[in-house]
From TrEMBL:
Catalysis performed (reactions): S-ubiquitinyl-[E2 ubiquitin-conjugating enzyme]-L-cysteine + [acceptor protein]-L-lysine = [E2 ubiquitin-conjugating enzyme]-L-cysteine + N(6)-ubiquitinyl-[acceptor protein]-L-lysine
Protein's UniProt name: E3 ubiquitin-protein ligase
BP terms from Gene Ontology: protein ubiquitination; ubiquitin-dependent protein catabolic process via the N-end rule pathway
Zinc finger (UBR-type): 77-151
Species per Swiss-Prot/TrEMBL record: Heterostelium pallidum (strain ATCC 26659 / Pp 5 / PN500) (Cellular slime mold)
Length: 1385
């Protein structure tokens, strides 16, 4: 070969290649005897150019070979542009044949789309794409650009070459592939840790990568070579005229045409299969734009899908193949191949989920492993989009086995990982929710919705799918049944942990998907047909599976020992709650209203056994209301989205549009519908950075019982919107229309049991001294049920239940007015009026009123009470009378008019006014009925209470004046000047408030009087700060204890590993002193005992502990019962008994009490402006304390510190807390605890280390948020915001560190402090504090910490770095410390 020929093509570095390759004989020459020399040369390649040279020698040409048959000579009919990440692509709605189709910018401009006025969109690629111009499967040929055309079927691309050239290229490619696949086999088989062997394997892997890179480049340059490579990879001829997936045509040149022919050996395994089985990184060969090749490749993949899909490293390849093969889905979703796409993938999902049997899913490690196995599998989420294609959904409809297997997949998830209420103590570790179960269930349900919509459009009967789903219904063997009121019911005692509840019930929810779609979309829907298919046991199973999660949501606040219950319920509410609500709604129709109410009563009372569940009655009524008000659609409608958005905007009244959309789009999915809804319901939606405000006319749509209001509805916001200060319970909001096929749910309003429930609930509130003289057999058990008796004693629960009953009556009245009364003729209204008048006059239940609502509220019940002789009545009169719901409403109206139960005023007035509109007899009865005697007496009692309250205020004022006079006399009696009342001598020496002596001995020590406030100070200083700045930490024991440490620890089971958990998450303490002191002997003389709670004789402030001075002997003299025992017994961290303070482990925990007060003082001494709201000084911050009060609290902190230090009678503990295991905790806690446990260590060193850890965590969070594009993270392009973010964290740390430093450097033997008095202004000066602590700025510290391993620089010039082994963190809010106190900003 002439070297100069290569230089002409710019390959001036060809000499090393020619030397490396060596002399090779031309194929067909006498010198060519085998392919072994070429295999030897291929083992020497170092770059793709080497393969070009080897090919040239094989062909016998003296120039680069690829240009001989490149696209310049053989035009590619399609575009092979590879659209990399962030590249502009175009989608033409007039030319694309599939939602995945797109073209590059060049093809779009040359395709006359603009000139012809086509509809198109543009977007930037996210994960890359391929231009589809020239691909008739995805793009209409009329939309091809001038450079591309549909491939012809007259000949294959390789037939354009000279026969000899074609033969040589086939043989060379076969040789090259054989070489590559042999290398791959060696790679797959070799496993060695020997360094020399590792290097050999790396060289081999590099050669395979070079071959693949050469193939990838060659197919982009040469159309004939592309076709030849495709044929050699598949070992068959890819000819449009003869191709048959089931009858492959043998590859050319596999037998000798002449005796002198030398052929490379054919692979025993299809090369493309060996290729995709390889463990190396490879280019995406599925993008070879030969349609027949894609068909063959897809068939091979489906044939081996079970093997390939379970390998995570192969899944990227499979995902790319699935996306790129969309045009041929129809072929593989029908009978074209024996490997049906949907059958294969469904079978794989079954195999995947069946692996659950290999794991204990209640074990954290096993659950994470199972989750990791399932996580990559998202094929079905992509494939269900193609259910819209008519040939595909038609094939599925005609092959019922596909859908039956489809349903079996999610049946495997049914009842997975059930929950049981923890009654005594939490588990040591509770796993996170099984997200993959939600993901797969939601995906399969969405696919079924798409199919049903298509089937119903085509008028196809779909009842067969309900039969298939019902065949999978099976109650667990552990299910227990009982009988009540002649009804068969299911044991449902989840409150007492007798029964479990699963939040994963996809097969029953799939029945809900079918029923919801059918009743709204299927013209042939029939309730009778559905009823005939669902027997009673299946119906009970169906409603029970849907109701139990709703009961769990109601009991949510009582499952506190299930540490992850908030995560479980949050996931459930966003994924499955609404379809379960619909299932209860539909089941109530099938059961009938009486059976349904009996089922609800039995379930919510936990079979009448939940004695501690006093809210069960109000929760049941609330759930019934939610079911009645539910308006569910198969997909989100504009009205449905407006309803969601209205409720959310009321709950989040101060939110900008972008954040509001971000909040809701994960629930509503359709961003377009959401945008339209926001414009319709709010003002400010078109203005940037403007808070959305609900339009006044939308307030009437407020739904107090909206299911997503888990804890409490946003009543404060609602009353602000309606400018109402009486906090009245809202009226029913405006609801969308109820579908006519669901009208039967309104039969509940005709059910007598509902009204007996209402009467049964209203009576104890309106007439607490009355009781029923007749038996309601429907729920006789409940009348004797202890929880109901407890509810009667709880005004709060009774109030809730009554409000719910009144609300239900409003719904019933509204339904009656709209659907019944307004449709009556004049004659029918006259008959009704006569019947009402007769009923009211005779109080006879055997009336002729046909209107069920009116009949029920006028139904009379016997009530009675025994009144003691009041001086006017006879002895022990038994008073019995008849009362109806209307009577109770009238009495309640009188009470609300007298300012009693004012929260019910709107509901009562609405009901009474509605009744007055029905008939004149009702108007007269309401206006003329005399209130019951007890109501009149109650109003008189209310007046008496009001007078008494006024008298109490008057007496309080007199007592305060008297106390002030007594204090003054006390000071004069003890010859104390008022200026001395601080409790200190002029030299700041403490003095006793009773004897006025400053003597302080070991036997009769002085002590500071203080008060401990535990419990309510919880989260005053929310110390989960490190979690606030951790980007990717998986939940472990650390996360499990957050906000759940009340009563979570048992002293006898306390472990060393729990020390930091308790420090960080347990309830906080706040200890304050009045500033006065008392001798031990004076206290005994004053109270008669050594120690008990009392009031300071000087200032009358409450005192429940004594803080001894800094002296161990004096501390022992006072004893534990005056100080440390008080703290430990007040600590809500521990269940049952307080820990023994003499135990070494408890001694370590004592640091918590000093730590809490450091954090509380730092928090409460900040500037804030809460009390200035609504004034002219609204934006002017101020200090809550003055300098004197701050000094007093600082002195208290110092006393606490030294007492805690002196109490610890254990040797220094050299345990290193600065370990990887503890990097999850607040660095300030770790630093101070380290010094407390080892006082020979340097506290400044600990503080400096904590400071560096904190700064690292903050920058790691910002970097992680930057990568993820988290909209709630600090704006990395805004330097001022970043600086503010860093400062907000580090400033608080420095203030706490200074308080710690102040405690260490102070001595209180005489009450004097070693440092000059610290003022609030100084404590707010971070520069001053940093200088005192010898701590540099965070910018300086950050620069010192730079590892220079990996660095990322933002546009604002701030640079952060990642250490070689980054810690595992998760992102948290900006605030390092937050307060739940209204007085702290």
């Amino acid at each position: 070969m002439e070297e100069n020929q290569w230089f002409l093509f710019g390959l001036d570095d060809i000499l090393p290649t020619l030397k490396r390759v060596g002399d090779l004989p031309v194929y067909g020459s006498e010198a060519f005897t085998s392919f072994s020399e070429y295999n030897t040369s291929l083992k020497k390649i170092e770059k793709t150019q080497d393969i070009d040279v080897i090919l040239a020698k094989f062909l016998g040409v003296n120039e680069p070979p690829i240009p001989l048959f490149s696209k310049d000579k053989f035009k590619l009919p399609f575009c092979n542009a590879d659209l990399q990440h962030n590249t502009l692509l175009y989608r033409c709605l007039d030319c694309s044949l599939n939602f995945t189709a797109c073209v590059c910018e060049e093809c779009f401009r040359k395709g006359n789309h603009l000139e012809e006025g086509h509809h198109f969109t543009t977007q930037l690629t996210i994960q890359g794409a391929t231009c589809d111009c020239g691909n008739p499967d995805l793009w209409k040929p009329s939309g091809f650009c001038c450079d591309h055309h549909a491939p012809t079927t007259e000949s294959t691309p390789s037939e354009l070459l000279e026969p000899e050239m074609r033969k040589k290229l086939h043989l060379f490619v076969r040789c090259l592939l054989n070489f590559m696949l042999n290398e791959v086999e060696i790679l797959n088989m070799t496993k060695s840790n020997d360094n020399a062997e590792k290097q050999r394997m790396q060289n081999l892997k590099n050669r395979v990568s070079l071959v693949l890179a050469w193939i990838h480049g060659a197919v982009q340059q040469s159309y004939p070579l592309l076709h030849i490579i495709a044929e050699e990879l598949t070992l068959q001829t890819l000819d449009n005229k003869s191709f048959d997936i089931n009858k492959p045509v043998p590859l050319s040149y596999t037998t000798k045409e002449e005796e002198t022919d030398i052929l490379p050996q054919l692979a025993t395994v299809i090369p493309i299969l060996t290729y995709i089985r390889g463990t190396f990184d490879h280019p995406d060969l599925y993008q070879l734009c030969i349609r027949l090749f894609k068909i063959y490749l897809f068939d091979v993949v489906l044939e081996n899908y079970s093997e390939l899909s379970l390998k995570v490293e192969k899944f990227i390849f499979l995902c790319g193949l699935f996306y790129d093969s969309a045009p041929i889905y129809t072929m593989f979703s029908t009978d074209y191949s024996k490997n049906n796409l949907f059958r294969v993938v469904i079978a794989e999902y079954k195999q995947l989920i069946s692996k659950k049997e290999m794991f204990d899913l209640n074990n954290a490690t096993d659950r994470e492993t199972f989750q990791a196995i399932c996580d990559p599998h998202t094929e079905m989420a992509f494939l269900i989009r193609f259910f819209r294609e008519q040939p595909i959904n038609q094939y599925i409809y005609n092959n019922d086995d596909i859908m039956h297997e489809y349903f079996k997949v999610i049946d495997l998830i049914q009842d997975i990982v059930p929950l049981k209420r923890a009654l005594i103590k939490p588990k040591e570790y509770e796993p996170e929710p099984l997200q993959v179960a939600n993901a797969i269930s939601s995906c399969f349900q969405n696919g079924f919705r798409i199919l049903l919509k298509r089937f119903h459009r085509q008028k196809l009967p779909t009842i067969k799918y309900l039969k298939s789903i019902l065949s999978l219904f099976k109650a667990p063997r552990s299910t227990k049944y009982l009988t009540c009121n002649d009804y068969k019911l299911i044991s449902n005692n989840i409150f007492n942990a007798v029964d479990t509840v699963s939040l994963y019930s996809p097969i029953t929810q799939m029945a809900g998907v079918y029923l919801l779609s059918s009743l709204q979309q299927d013209d042939n829907y029939s309730l009778d047909v559905v009823r005939s298919l669902i027997d009673n046991d299946k119906l009970l199973y169906m409603i029970n599976q849907s109701l139990k999660p709703m009961m769990l949501l109601c009991q949510y606040g009582k499952w506190t020992k299930n540490l992850n219950i908030n995560l479980e319920t949050s996931c459930y509410m966003l994924s499955s709650m609404f379809i379960d609500l619909f299932m209860i709604q539909y089941s109530s129709i099938l059961l009938g209203p009486n059976y349904y109410l009996n089922f609800m009563i039995n379930s919510f009372t936990s079979n009448y056994k939940s004695n501690e569940y006093t809210s069960c009655w109000s929760d049941m009524l609330k759930t019934i209301i939610q079911i009645q008000q539910l308006r569910m659609n198969p997909k989100h409608t504009p009205e449905n989205v407006r309803h969601y958005a209205t409720q959310s905007l009321i709950a989040n009244k101060k939110m900008e549009k972008e954040k509001f959309v971000e909040l809701l789009k994960s629930i509503l999915y359709s961003e377009k519908l959401l945008e339209d809804a926001i414009l319709e319901i709010s003002s400010g939606a078109n203005q940037l950075n403007t808070e959305l405000k609900l339009k006044p006319e939308r307030v009437k749509y407020f739904d107090f019982y909206f299911p997503l209001y888990l804890d409490e509805p946003p009543m404060k916001n609602y009353h602000e919107l309606i400018k109402d200060n009486d906090n009245s319970h809202p009226l029913p909001g405006v609801l969308g229309p109820l579908h006519h096929n669901l009208e039967a749910i309104n039969d509940l309003y005709n059910e007598s049991l509902l009204y007996r429930i209402v009467f049964f609930t209203l009576l104890p509130l309106v007439h607490p001294q009355y009781k029923l003289e007749e038996t309601f057999s429907d729920f006789e058990k409940f009348n004797k049920f202890s929880s109901f008796q407890e509810m009667l004693q709880s005004q709060e629960e009774l109030d809730k239940s009554v409000n719910n009953c009144l609300y239900l009556l409003c719904l019933a009245q509204q339904h009656y007015s709209e659907k019944q009364f307004n449709t009556l003729s004049g004659e029918e209204k006259s008959t009704l009026s006569t019947s009402i008048k007769l009923q009211l006059s005779e109080k006879d239940n055997n009336n002729t009123i046909k209107s069920s609502f009116i009949s029920h509220i006028l139904t009379y019940h016997k009530v009675g009470t025994t009144k003691e002789n009041d001086g006017e009545n006879n002895n022990n009169n038994n008073t019995t009378q008849s009362m109806s719901i209307l009577d109770l409403l009238i009495d309640l109206l009188v009470m609300t008019n007298k300012n009693r139960y004012v929260d019910k005023k709107k509901l009562i007035n609405h009901l009474i006014n509605g009744l007055k509109d029905i008939d004149e007899s009702l108007v007269n009865y309401i206006n003329n009925r005399k209130p019951s005697d007890d109501i009149i007496k109650g109003n008189e009692d209310e007046k008496l209470r009001s007078d008494q309250l006024e008298e109490v205020h008057k007496r309080q004022k007199e007592i305060k004046e008297m106390m002030a006079q007594q204090q003054k006399q006390f000071l004069q009696l003890n010859e104390i000047d008022e200026s001395e009342s601080s409790g200190l001598h002029d030299n700041n020496t403490p003095i006793c408030v009773t004897c006025r002596s400053s003597t302080d001995t070991d036997t009769d020590p002085l002590g500071a009087m203080g008060n401990v406030c535990g419990f309510h100070a919880h989260i005053n200083s929310k110390r989960n700060s490190l979690k606030s700045f951790c980007p990717s930490l998986k939940d472990n024991e650390f996360g499990s204890y957050e906000f759940h440490t009340f009563g979570s620890f048992y002293p006898e089971e306390l472990k060393e590993s729990q020390i930091l958990i308790i420090m960080q998450f347990s309830p906080s303490f706040n200890i304050s002193c009045c500033g006065h002191h008392i001798h031990k002997s004076c206290l005994i003389n004053l109270s008669g005992k050594e120690f008990q709670g009392f009031h300071c004789p000087l200032c009358d402030r409450p005192t429940n502990l004594i803080l001894p001075p800094d002296n161990i002997n004096k501390l022992k003299s006072w004893g534990n019962d005056c100080f440390i025992d008080v703290l430990v017994k007040s600590d809500m961290t521990f269940a049952m008994n307080a820990p023994d303070v003499s135990e070494p482990l408890t001694m370590k925990l004592l640091w918590k009490y000093a730590l809490s007060n450091i954090e509380t003082l730092e928090l409460t001494s900040r500037r804030q402006k809460s009390y200035n709201r609504g004034t002219s000084h609204e934006n002017k911050p101020y200090f809550v304390y003055n300098d004197a009060e701050f000094s007093k609290r600082l002195n208290t902190l110092t006393i606490i510190y030294h007492n805690i230090i002196n109490l610890r009678e254990i040797p220094d503990d050299p345990t290193e807390l600065w370990s990887d295991d503890n990097q999850l905790y607040d660095p300030f806690i770790v630093a101070t605890l380290s010094f407390y446990l080892n006082r020979s260590s340097d506290p400044k060193a600990h503080i400096k280390k904590a400071y560096e850890n904190l700064i690292f965590c903050v920058q790691a969070t910002i970097m992680d948020s930057y990568r993820r594009g988290n909209p709630l993270s600090p704006d990395v392009n805004d330097r001022d915001k970043l600086v503010k973010f860093f400062s907000s964290v580090t400033d608080q740390f420095i203030r706490k560190a200074y308080l710690f430093h102040h405690c260490i450097s102070s001595r209180l033997q005489t009450g004097n402090q070693s440092e000059s008095q610290l003022t609030l202004e100084q404590f707010s000066d971070i520069s001053y504090l940093r200088t005192a602590l010898d701590i540099p700025t965070w910018q300086t510290t950050q620069n010192e910490m730079m590892t220079r391993e990996v660095s990322i620089t933002f546009t604002n010039g701030i640079s952060f770095s990642i250490p070689p082994k980054p810690a595992k963190f998760i992102p948290l809010p900006h605030s390092y410390v937050v307060s739940n106190s209204y007085s702290i900003d």
